[in-house]
Amino acid sequence: MKNALKILFNTLRTLSFKKIIKLLKLTVPHPLFAVLGVYATMKSFVIAKECFPKTNSSSGVGNAFRHALWTCLITMYCSKVSSPRKALDFSKKMTDLHEELFPNKPLETKMDLHNNKVGMDLYEELLPGIHRQFFETSFFIDQLLEKTKNARVLEDVDADLDNNLVYLKE
Description:
The protein is an all-alpha fold. It has 7 helices and 2 strands. The protein has helices spanning about 1-10, 15-25, 30-50, 60-80, 85-100, 105-125, 135-150, and strands spanning about 150-155, 165. The longest helix is centred in the first third of the chain and has 21 residues, at about 30-50. The two termini are about 25 Å apart.
């Protein structure tokens, strides 16, 4: 967790003033969500690194797992203090803003946004069967590890994607 925190602070130091303002517009109105989102960010990095030591920070299947887990965790933590709808909305805003603040090539952005959606969809899929207060990280890890077995290589930004995780060829 210490390394994840260091990465987070080093990353924030690279932001321009304009990007910091955009970040503040998301976090200031929702300070508790922001703290929970940062915690989810660090936790998803740590778990992905444990599960996928070689591809968690590249564009491989570990990265796909990390992005989906990230949105699951943001949504899970935020829904413990607010409604699932508000938690999902914040999760989408936070993860979309990440792609805006730290732009990638179009194919990488498509991959990240799609995997973020897979995570949010998984949360919504599990929600009817589990009270939001009883969600645990392990529920998502098991499901997402299963999804990595069917992950597909993304080769075209116009590809029609289903609910599988996607990654880029190394």
